Here is the input.
Amino acid sequence: MDKTNLTGLSREELAAYFESLGEKSFRAYQLFSWIHHHRVTSFDEMTNIPKTLRQKLKNNATLEQMITLSVNSSRQTQSRKFLFELSDGKTIESVYLPDDHRHTVCLSVQVGCGLNCKFCATGKMGFIRHLSTSEIVGQLITIQREVPFRITNVVLMGMGEPFLNYENVIKAAYLINDDYGFSISARKITISTAGIIPKIYQYADEGHKFNLAFSLNAADDTTRLNLMPINRKYPLEQCFRALEYYTQKSKRRVTLEYVLIAGVNDSNEDVRRLVKITNQLKCKLNVIPYNPIHVEDFKSPINKELNVFVQKVSVSKRIVMVRWSQGKDINGACGQLYAESNS
Here is the structure.
């Protein structure tokens, strides 16, 4: 008999599960807290649950665990990159990113990615499979056990396209937000998309309060298509209409992510177009200096080029920030995640 994995279940689903066992539904709150707040690894550690019930759980259920294959620590920052093995032997990477009082974890949502963005190492893996809700949350549970500070922020920006694994990603975000678990504010949970338009509309209509980030990376369709093949299916103007719908519906701004690549998307014409885009949308702009990957010969902008670009774009009405990536020396920076052992 297959055992029920309880790690990815909501409190409501756990209540139904306990009722199916002939137990009181309030046990769901206790179990959820043990999994997501105390982050225990076995039912035996759940001391306020009767031994007879713990035995019943051991007979019928399981707590899916992430197997940590390696942890690489940056010599330049305090960031750490985790390589996890999943129950089927597939592997993924996640990153812990401390910065003053902010302790962020970047979570993966797929094994590999099918979008094949040229500046992203994960896309070179191709799409292998979606992660389950428990596998997404399990990364955070395991990392929180390993680091000495409370995780304050979560970004779903690791391996994979979140809106192509929409249901599992949204459910995972709510588990992370739950007051009986990590209790991380919705405003400190960010979901990124390369522009899966139907899901942007769905996200807006469903009224989720998590932050939304849009991977822009070019201010015209020709350049963006060269960098991001998804632009053929979902061109920029259609993406902008969806984002405008989201900002009007949610009354919240969207974050535009712009990976700056020397000689590719940093011209004066790019600046002009980008200023027009940022003025059109209710947004803020994060400029991310390109992080090198082995299979492309793109170049990062030097600091002077970066500063000039940001200064020019800052004539817009919106907030413009440089987002420096941590963990470049361990290939843990934005766009560098790649797990080699998947076959």
